[in-house]
Design a protein that fits this description.
It comes from Periophthalmus magnuspinnatus. By secondary structure, the chain is α+β, with helices and mostly antiparallel strands. It contains 8 helices and 16 strands. The longest helix is centred in the N-terminal third of the chain and has 15 residues.
C-alpha cells in the first residue's frame, strides 16, 4: 500500500541521515509536529500505530470512575443516552443488579464524572498530537470484561475501530484507552497487530464463533493470522493511544475478577462525515439504524446523525463535526 511504501521510504531516509532525529520526523504522516512527543515516540507510532504511556491517569481518578460505574450498575444514577451492555453468556433470566451483569457501558457523554476522563488535560495533551488543537470526543466506553463462562464470549474479535465511524480522515482520529487495573494475558489484555494501521479498512462481520458473539462485536474478515502480535500488558493508569485502522482485539478473561478499562475516541473537529452506502461499512450502518429505530422510535436517523449528537467538543472549536 501507499502508506507502507511511505513508511519504508521513511526508514530508508533515516538510515541515510546523519541529522538529529528531530529533522527526520518532518516526514511523519500519522502524528503532528507540536513538540510534545519525542521523535522516537513519533517514529514508534508511525511504524506501529500505537503508543503506550505509563502511569498517565491517577489512581485517585480511576477510583472515582470505578465508583461511578458501580453507581450506574446499581441504578442509582440515570444517564441519558447511556447504553448498558451485558455479556450474552450471563443468564438472561435473572437480572443481577450489580456490575456482574454489565460487560460494557457505551456513550457515557452525559455522565459528568465518567466524561471527565475525556477532558483530562494529560490525555488531551497527547490526543492533540494526532488530531490537532480542535478536538471532539466522539465515542466513549467503560469496558468491564467479565470472567469467561467457558463459552469464550468474553473475547473481542480482531477488528478496526474505523469500521464503526462514518467520518474521516482516519489519521486524525485516535483512541485513548486506560487500564483501570493491571491488565495482562490472563485477564484478556489488548492484542494488537503492529503496523496494520498503514493498511486499508477491511470488511467486518460477526465471526463464526461457537458460544456466541456479543451484539455489535464485528470482526475483521481477512487478516494475516501469522502477523506478529503484541500483547499490551498494562498497569493501572497506563494509557495506550492507537490509530483507528490498527487491527486489535482481546482474549478471554481467565480470571475470577472483572477487567476494567475506560476509553474515548477523539477526532479532529474538522473531520468530515462520509456516506458509507456501497462500502464495507454498510452492515454496521444498517445495524445502528435498526437500534435507533427500536430504542428511540426514531425513523430516518442517519448513521452520521447518531454520531453528530454523541460528539462533544473537548478542546478548541467545533468546526465540521
Amino acid at each position: 500500500s501507499k502508506m507502507s511504501r511511505a513508511a519504508d521510504r521513511l526508514k530508508h531516509l533515516i538510515g541515510h541521515l546523519d541529522r538529529p532525529p528531530a529533522a527526520i520526523v518532518s516526514f511523519t504522516l500519522y502524528s503532528l509536529d507540536n513538540n510534545l512527543l519525542a521523535p522516537e515516540q513519533r517514529l514508534f507510532y508511525e511504524e506501529n500505530g500505537f503508543l503506550l504511556i505509563k502511569n498517565l491517569v491517577s489512581h485517585e481518578d480511576i477510583e472515582k470512575f470505578r465508583q461511578e460505574f458501580e453507581r450506574i450498575c446499581r441504578r442509582e444514577v440515570q444517564v441519558p443516552g447511556l447504553v448498558v451492555m451485558r455479556d450474552v453468556a450471563i443468564a438472561k433470566s435473572e437480572f443481577i443488579p450489580d456490575q456482574r451483569a454489565v460487560s460494557k457501558l457505551q456513550d457515557f457523554q452525559e455522565d459528568p464524572e465518567l466524561f471527565r476522563f475525556c477532558t483530562l488535560p494529560q490525555i488531551l495533551e497527547y490526543v492533540q498530537c494526532f488530531t490537532g488543537p480542535n478536538i471532539m470526543a466522539m465515542h466513549t466506553m467503560l469496558i468491564n470484561k467479565p470472567p469467561d463462562t467457558g463459552k469464550k464470549t468474553s473475547r473481542h474479535p480482531m477488528h478496526q475501530d474505523l469500521h464503526y465511524f462514518p467520518f474521516r480522515p482516519a489519521h486524525r482520529i485516535v483512541c485513548a484507552w486506560t487500564a483501570m487495573e493491571a491488565v495482562n494475558r490472563q485477564n484478556g489484555c489488548l492484542v494488537v497487530l503492529p503496523g496494520t494501521h498503514t493498511g486499508t479498512l477491511k470488511e467486518h462481520d460477526y465471526p463464526e464463533w461457537e458460544g456466541g458473539v456479543n451484539k455489535m462485536y464485528h470482526g475483521v474478515r481477512d487478516y494475516n493470522p501469522d502477523h506478529p502480535r503484541v500483547h499490551l500488558e498494562m498497569e493501572k493508569g497506563d494509557t495506550v493511544f492507537f490509530h483507528p485502522l490498527l487491527i486489535h482485539g482481546s482474549g478471554t478473561n481467565q480470571t475470577q475478577g472483572f477487567r476494567k478499562a475506560i476509553s474515548c475516541h477523539y477526532a479532529a473537529a474538522d473531520c468530515y462525515y462520509i456516506d458509507v452506502k456501497g462500502t464495507t461499512q454498510e452492515n454496521i450502518d444498517q445495524e445502528v439504524k435498526e437500534i435507533a429505530q427500536k430504542r428511540y422510535n426514531l425513523d430516518g436517523v442517519s448513521f452520521q446523525d447518531t454520531w453528530a449528537f454523541r460528539g462533544r467538543l473537548v478542546q478548541g472549536d467545533r468546526i465540521s463535526m
